[in-house]
Amino acid sequence: MVGLTGSILVFQDEIDRALDPELFYVMEQQRKMPFEEIVPLIRQKYPDLQFDYIMRSAEDKPNEAYRLFRFKTEEEFFINPYTGELSGKRLHESSFTHIVTELHRTLLIPVAGRYIVGLATLCLLILTISGLRLWVPQRWNQLKSMLTVKFSAGFKRQNYDWHNVLGFYSSPVVALLSLTGFCITFSPLVIALLFMLNGQNPQGVAELLGAKSVYTEGAKTLTVREVTAISEKTMPGARVAGLAFPADSSGNYR
Prior knowledge:
The chain has helices spanning 2-9, 12-19, 21-24, 35-45, 96-106, 112-135, 143-146, 155-185, 187-197, 204-209, 224-234; strands at residues 53-55, 66-70, 75-79, 86-91, 242-244. By secondary structure, the chain is an alpha+beta fold.
């Protein structure tokens, strides 16, 4: 199930756009507005529209809409980047790719599913490494025969050969996928371990992920234009593909 859904998710953007083309695509016009221009325009045109995040695709194609998210309600809005007009909306959690993603990560089982998948990937990693150890022939002159399929043999022997050959050549990829999948599931522990290996306090993870702004009464909040200018100055040549807004007076732009 994890392998099948993972294979589907490789093409999630293409599938998503094929299923809802009227949401994702707009007519190309002369100039696409950057975030610092379109965000104030959206708030002016749709004062009741609440959103926490704005993003554009990695390719930033000229005929693709901007996407807005409201995390609390799981609503996703699509905005024409040339006019600022709302072109459609949907519940993100009801989309096909979101359901496949949840199947891939949790098997649609609340809480426990995430750990079932994580432990399954750990088992796969152990099976792959131990399988390689069992596969290594006792004599090196047998190595060639272990890496080839004997087509003249019967079905049972060919099946055994294909199992060995495909298992050997795919093992580095399978091991990497299972290791990274395990790290994603147990990311808080893995990140804390990386901090420790780097000679830092593992509590730095909480400080990093839970960073807060210092609220100052009467201080003016930075505008989107000012924030993007700071990011461009800090990281020359970088492109802002997504922007999350502060949730409260001590929140951050991200």
